[in-house]
């Protein structure tokens, strides 16, 4: 049964209610204090990177086609900061923000568009506007031009979606509003003379927002509307949610006439919505077949709405759910738009602050919900990444989950098993491409920080995947296989024994440390291999380097240790379900 609630009723119902998340109190989430704290942490980190010169994208050279071989794509052989850890994914092209026309860089969102004739284009968010490029049949990025920001200052947050033939662009910048740009304008541009568009080139501009800012843009392709979510008041330094009619919730934008967008109303009932996925419902819950459903990622909850009726400011909430260890529920996606049974979501702060689950080790964790009963969704399990990072955005394409996990770059998960095993234990990583090699040698293989990849787009028929980063610029990559890695075949050999000999005190630990470094950084020089391994592993037909690599795959890895928490609070009173015990029907 749909619960139709007014703004006043929902506010009253939520006061003092424990919602599961622990980054702040319910009141601090509702007021925006938690989000302001998070944005402040990000800004401080990015300003530090700027001061250190890491945001100067001109230092990152153009890179051409580079195959992923033996776990690495050496864009520049011998250059560790242009050699990328990988599996099943080749690099085709890289261009810096500077090469993509930006004076400031600082990448954010991106999205793809395919023309009627099959040409593939990307809209690329940067601090000072949106760049446009075509991906050639050879996988090359061809820069075509740019649309400047609508506001005079610029912003680290620029969110882009493409609705049919129109790029819909929002920003956290004051007075920016929502830009609507016809992507067909790109079809006849001259790459030798990139075009600098102006605001006069927009098809439409919509600015019925409190102060012109919105944190995110959502589109429903089938029903042809857009949503501005996370739109709040205030100024450049203060964000205000109170006393706004929509409270940062779902603000609907009618796109039937892109030159004259209008808003029929908003859904303010559960307050601030950070991101959402809105779909015509097709799934096992017969009560909602054919309804317009939005899955809202609302900071401390997964909130499911029926938004079929968009007129006025009345909210139809189906359910509100959280989970143990929730800190800042950020974004997510259903497993299958044509049969919406399960949902994957990420939490942008649990790797830093959660006191339960794999998040305590700083491992990016994908949380799984059974949504077969929209009124009673429940948590069934999770999938943990292999190296430290923070998860950010993820999108589903043909049964594979394409994730942008900040410093880890692109991770591609085969999640087809979730309908049989909702615990997440059977999910496997079909491929990855680590776009931030600077932190690969850190404890845990990465950094729990807001750096690296912001977004990716994997919906091109060519198979090319666009990966956009904050510091460097944009990558085009392509999978060579979607087969998950098989366990290594570990046969007793003098090479393997030399790395883990129990008869030699400390040898296993020494071998683990060497193998960790060996598998983290590409080693081509035989003199870098310790003498005990060089002597035992030499003489193989596959060569010394390859033989050592095979043996290292059979040495137990060093477990990623617990990561000290950044805040102090009472322990979470509940625990995550065990993997195999989490399946609930």
Radius of gyration: 24 Å
Share of helix among residues?
10-25%
Strand percentage lies at 25-35%
Largest sheet: 6 strands, antiparallel
Individual helix count: 8
Mean of residue pLDDT? 91
| Shape field | globular
Count of distinct strands: 34
Distance between the termini: 20 Å
Helix/strand class: alpha+beta
Side-by-side strand order of the widest sheet: 2-3-31-30-29-28
Q: Outline the low-pLDDT stretches.
A: 1-20, 568-585
Signal peptide: 1-20
InterPro entries: Choice_anch_B (IPR027589)
Keywords: Signal
What's the SSE blueprint?
Blueprint lengths: L2 E3 L1 H8 L11 H6 L1 H19 L20 E3 L8 E5 L1 E8 L13 E5 L5 E7 L2 E7 L5 E8 L9 E6 L2 E6 L6 E5 L12 E2 L7 E3 L9 E5 L4 E5 L3 E2 L4 E2 L9 E5 L11 E2 L7 E6 L11 E6 L4 E5 L8 E7 L7 E6 L7 E6 L2 H4 L11 E6 L7 E7 L8 E5 L2 E5 L5 E5 L13 E6 L19 E5 L6 E6 L3 E7 L14 H7 L6 H14 L10 H7 L6 H9 L33
Parallel strand pairs: 8-12
Antiparallel strand pairs: 1-23, 2-3, 3-31, 4-34, 5-6, 6-7, 7-8, 9-10, 10-11, 11-13, 14-15, 15-18, 16-17, 18-19, 20-21, 21-22, 22-23, 24-25, 25-26, 26-27, 28-29, 29-30, 30-31, 32-33, 33-34
């Amino acid at each position: 049964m749909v619960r139709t609630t007014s703004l006043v009723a929902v506010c009253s119902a939520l006061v003092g209610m424990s919602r599961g998340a622990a980054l702040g109190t319910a009141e601090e989430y509702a007021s925006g204090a938690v989000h302001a704290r998070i944005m402040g942490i990000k800004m401080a980190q990015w300003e530090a990177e700027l001061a250190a010169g890491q945001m100067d994208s001109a230092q990152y050279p153009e890179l051409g086609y580079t195959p992923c071989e033996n776990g690495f794509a050496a864009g520049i052989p011998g250059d560790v900061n242009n050699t990328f850890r990988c599996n099943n994914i080749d690099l085709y092209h890289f261009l810096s923000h500077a090469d993509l026309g930006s004076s400031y860089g600082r990448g954010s969102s991106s999205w793809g568009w395919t023309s009627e004739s099959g040409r593939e284009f990307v809209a690329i968010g940067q601090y000072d506007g949106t760049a446009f490029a075509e991906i050639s049949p050879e996988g090359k990025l061809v820069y075509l031009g740019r649309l400047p920001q609508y506001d005079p200052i610029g912003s680290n947050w620029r969110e882009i979606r493409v609705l049919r033939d129109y790029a819909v662009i929002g920003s956290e910048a004051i007075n920016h509003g929502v830009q609507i740009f016809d992507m067909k304008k790109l079809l006849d541009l001259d790459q030798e003379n990139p075009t600098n568009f102006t605001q006069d080139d927009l098809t439409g501009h919509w600015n019925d927002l409190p102060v012109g800012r919105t944190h995110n843009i959502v589109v429903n392709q089938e029903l042809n509307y857009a949503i501005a979510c996370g739109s709040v008041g205030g100024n450049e330094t203060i964000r205000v949610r109170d006393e706004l009619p929509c409270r940062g919730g779902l603000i609907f934008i009618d796109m039937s006439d892109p030159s004259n967008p209008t808003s029929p109303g908003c859904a303010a009932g559960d307050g601030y919505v950070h991101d959402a996925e809105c779909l015509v419902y097709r799934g096992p819950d017969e009560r909602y077949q054919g309804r317009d459903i939005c899955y809202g990622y609302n900071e401390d909850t997964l909130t499911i709405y029926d938004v079929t009726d968009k007129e006025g400011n009345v909210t139809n909430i189906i359910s509100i759910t959280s989970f143990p260890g929730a800190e800042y529920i950020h974004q997510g996606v259903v497993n299958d738009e044509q049969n919406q049974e399960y949902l994957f979501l990420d939490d942008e702060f649990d790797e830093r602050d959660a006191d339960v689950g794999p998040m305590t080790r700083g491992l990016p964790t994908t949380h799984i919900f059974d949504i077969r009963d929209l009124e009673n969704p429940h948590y069934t399990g999770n999938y943990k990444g292999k190296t430290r990072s923070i998860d950010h955005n993820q999108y589903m394409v043909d049964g594979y989950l394409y994730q942008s996990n900040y410093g880890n770059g692109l991770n591609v998960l085969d999640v087809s098993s979730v309908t049989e095993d909702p615990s997440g234990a059977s999910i496997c990583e079909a491929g990855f491409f680590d776009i931030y090699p600077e932190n690969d040698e850190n404890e845990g293989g990465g950094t729990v920080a807001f750096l690296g990849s912001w977004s990716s787009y994997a919906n091109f028929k060519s198979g090319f995947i666009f990966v956009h980063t904050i510091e460097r610029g944009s990558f085009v990559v392509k999978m060579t296989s979607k087969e998950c890695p098989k366990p290594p075949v570990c046969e007793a050999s003098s090479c393997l024994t030399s790395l883990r000999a129990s008869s030699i005190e400390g040898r296993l630990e020494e071998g683990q440390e060497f193998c960790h470094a060996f598998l983290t950084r590409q080693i081509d020089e035989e003199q870098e291999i310790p003498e005990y391994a060089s002597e035992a592993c030499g003489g193989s037909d596959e060569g010394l380097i390859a033989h050592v690599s095979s043996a290292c795959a059979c040495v137990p890895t060093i477990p990623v240790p617990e990561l000290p928490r950044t805040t102090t609070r009472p322990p979470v009173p509940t625990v995550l379900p065990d993997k195999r015990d989490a399946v609930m029907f």
